[in-house]
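Cast an eye over this sequence plus tokens and walk me through the fold:

***
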Amino acid sequence: MAAISRTPSVSAPGAQPAPGLRERKKLRTRIAIRRATYRLISEQGYDATTIEQIAEASEVSPSTVFRYFATKEDIVLTDAYDPVMEAELRNRPADEPPLESLRFIMTEALTAFLASEEEPRQRTRLMVEVPAIRARMTETMSDTAKVLARALADRSGRNPDDLEVRVFIAAALGALREVTLYWGEHGQEGDLIAMIHQALDRLEGGLTL
């Protein structure tokens, strides 16, 4: 999911087992690539930063960078945690209103995003300033929407391609996207989580101006 980066937490009782050695090594590589990217962008700007430079700075080959991230924009934006969000959504109570379920997983994701060591404020600034990143964010959020629609549709017995399901998910994720951009455009001032709650409250109450 775009704009959201999560780090696996210590397993709680009943949770998934901690990742194995191979998975931890892959995660360390992803983090090294991302940190090198942020450092280079801070020093010389986004457009001037190349995949070759990122590879050298993170001590991997360019092909390894592309194996973990399909595009340079993806290094800034995405992580492989849509399955985690899907699992959390499926674990919510069956009788919980769908919007409340989405509110919960968005709050969890934003909390992890803001607490991460992967420069969340720099990431948000780049989302605002770099058109290619903003465009890629829209693409990746579309992928996330399909994952979450599948989980909600299964819970309600509907088809994931049901128009109402798609519009519902798109509205919630659209609120997340616009709130994040607004926060970035206004100097990242204010409580981002409180702002997304306010936006979801407006959705729940019906959109009026």
Summary: The radius of gyration is 18 Å. The longest helix spans residues 131-156. Residues 20 and 158 are 36 Å apart (CA to CA). The chain has a mean pLDDT of 85.
